[in-house]
């Protein structure tokens, strides 16, 4: 086997993209979770700012899901 | 060499065998998408496999691009005949069934590649195989996939738990809902990639036999049959592998399930679009291991991980040996071909029969983390009960040998079981004797033991 048979650049790209994408999505989910958590509630109600932030994050995550579907379905490419 | 089989007959048999392989591929890989969701309760087991089957079917039918080669350059496709394809399918099917019996997740793609390598070597010699491609497209990805996915999952889990052992309050419910989306995406991705594998094999056989022109797209019945085969296989559940992946490596919670599925999804999409293919099975297994390490490193079951790694390392040589044997036999003529078919049927039936000794289904997939093969079911339950933390709080009269005392989940069901009104019945199940009385609160059944004289005695 020759080293040239292995696409090390592609391997590196896959590793980096996987880790970075996962960390970003996990961070977004953690942030959304904090926004909708019971911590910081005022009279049992989530503050408006946190609620807006939470829904904004969920919207971004929804767009990520749509991007994932775009990548998965060959018809779109 | 004996008499030759009519071409049409051979094509029909090969196509049928390919669809059977697709079915085994389905139940083998259904755990990839749904194991963590089933383990954390994001989906009920039956609903999980139904949704995964639908996603696989949709994905398979959406995938219009057939693989340009069935072997991705691992063997010289110009040398591949219908006999070799048949032998390769036989080898892959038997390996899939064996690893399913043992509850070990292994790559169906690597199984078919290994069997094809063995099959080609027997009939065409080593010149028909490209070792450098084997190393770059099978061996290296098998090592890299679990590490990359595991690392990503590890980091995601740390983020989800904020570095603590317990998830923030209310987080589990929200992560469970997010898991549903991520697992469906994994199932869809699996359908688009694995669905076309069998379509490519069938199309190649049709082209080689002269029933289709080269370079044309798969026929509509090929797309539908391959899609249905993988969907049906997915729906059948592959519960033995589901148990290993969902509970065999580590006990996971919904944030961990989300972390594992997200990292799996990222790895699958990155690998398919950046030119370095990774096995879904290896990716998901590595991701589950990574999330287990992040939260409960002391509770990761390394023995299960070791068995899985052994299965991955043995996939290529073992499937290759079976493929080689099947290829040699089928090359002897029609009788050899029929003999290979009979061996496939007999061994498949034997494996299925052995699996019934310790049947794993949607009803008990989460009851324990072990997949027993030859041990009696009762012994497995008793062994699990020894470490059952709730054994000391069993309802009176119900001993640890009672099958319902095997696991916390089963115990909860036993306690919450509504008492039957106006019914006094004595039951004896595997050594435990108790009677139910009306208006008894759940978890407070009065036990009744039958003495040697047959008289009831209050415990």
Detail the topology: elements first, then pairings.
The complex is a heterodimer of chains A (77) and B (459).
Chain A: H1 8-35, H2 48-72
Chain B: H1 7-40, H2 45-62, H3 82-101, H4 108-124, H5 131-160, H6 171-208, H7 220-236, H8 239-248, H9 254-273, H10 280-295, H11 302-330, H12 334-355, H13 377-386, H14 408-416, E1 425-429, E2 432-436, E3 448-450, E4 456-458
Antiparallel strand pairs in B: 1-2, 3-4
Helix pairs in contact in B: 1-2, 1-3, 1-6, 1-7, 1-8, 1-9, 1-10, 2-6, 2-7, 3-4, 3-11, 3-12, 4-11, 5-9, 5-10, 6-7, 6-9, 9-10, 11-12
| Residue-averaged pLDDT of chain B | 80
Indicate how many domains the architecture of chain B comprises.
2
Biggest sheet strand line-up of chain B: 1-2
The number of helices of chain B is 14
Terminal-residue CA separation of chain A: 34 Å
- Mean of residue pLDDT values of chain A: 84
Keywords:
heterodimer; A: 77 residues; 2 helices; 69% helix; B: 459 residues; mainly alpha; two-stranded antiparallel ribbon; two-stranded antiparallel sheet; 14 helices; 4 strands
3D architecture notes:
The complex is a heterodimer of chains A (77) and B (459). Chain A is mainly α and 77 residues long. Chain A has one domain. Chain A is 69% helix and 0% strand. Chain A has 2 helices and no strands. Chain A has helices at 8-35, 48-72. In chain A, helix 1 (8-35) packs antiparallel against helix 2 (48-72). Chain A is elongated. The model of chain A has no long low-confidence stretch (mean pLDDT 84). With 459 residues, chain B is mainly α. Chain B has 2 domains: 7-358, no CATH class; 377-458, no CATH class. In chain B, 63% of the residues lie in helices and 3% in strands. Chain B contains 14 helices and 4 strands. Chain B has helices at 7-40, 45-62, 82-101, 108-124, 131-160, 171-208, 220-236, 239-248, 254-273, 280-295, 302-330, 334-355, 377-386, 408-416; strands at residues 425-429, 432-436, 448-450, 456-458. In chain B, the strands form 2 sheets. Chain B has a two-stranded antiparallel sheet with strand order 1-2. A two-stranded antiparallel ribbon of chain B has the order 3-4. In chain B, a hairpin with a 2-residue loop joins strand 1 and strand 2. Chain B is globular, with a radius of gyration of 25 Å. Mean pLDDT of chain B is 80; it is low at 400-406 and 427-459. Chains A and B meet through helix 1 and helix 2 of A and helix 5, helix 6 and helix 9 of B.
